[in-house]
Amino acid sequence: RYDAFISSSWDDNLLVQPVIELLEEKHGFRCCIHNRDFHPGERILDQIGAAIDQSRRTVCFISPSFIDSMYCEYELKYAMEEDIRQGKKRLLVIMLQPITRFDPSNPVVKQYISSRVYLDINDPVF
């Protein structure tokens, strides 16, 4: 149904919106974005799972605000588990800002960035 599910914090909308516009308008991709495509009155966790399941890729834009969001954490964790379960690599992580702190009770982001490849927009290659 979707080419990509976009996972980002509300606080990062100004950084993420141009990427969404580029994907949809210039390249014709269909993106699922929570503030546009989720339905009011339905359980948010069910909608997250369905959106990830119905998307070819999940793109997570990581930032300190992302780490502070329990919904963003759930989206990342769900996408990671689906990759493992299906034996596919559908998850793409883009680091918007350096992450300098981790909550020991929330190791999901730390686990991902310490064991997998991710894009860092602060890298001079960009």
From TrEMBL:
The keyword Signal applies. It comes from the Eukaryota. One of its GO terms (biological process) is signal transduction. InterPro entries: TIR_dom, Toll_tir_struct_dom_sf. This is TIR domain-containing protein. SUPFAM superfamilies: Toll/Interleukin receptor TIR domain. Gene3D superfamilies: Toll/interleukin-1 receptor homology (TIR) domain (3.40.50.10140). Keywords: Membrane, Signal, Transmembrane, Transmembrane helix. It comes from Capitella teleta (Polychaete worm). GO terms for cellular component: plasma membrane. It is found in: Membrane. It holds the Pfam family TIR_2. One of its GO terms (molecular function) is signaling receptor activity. Residues 1-121 form the TIR domain.
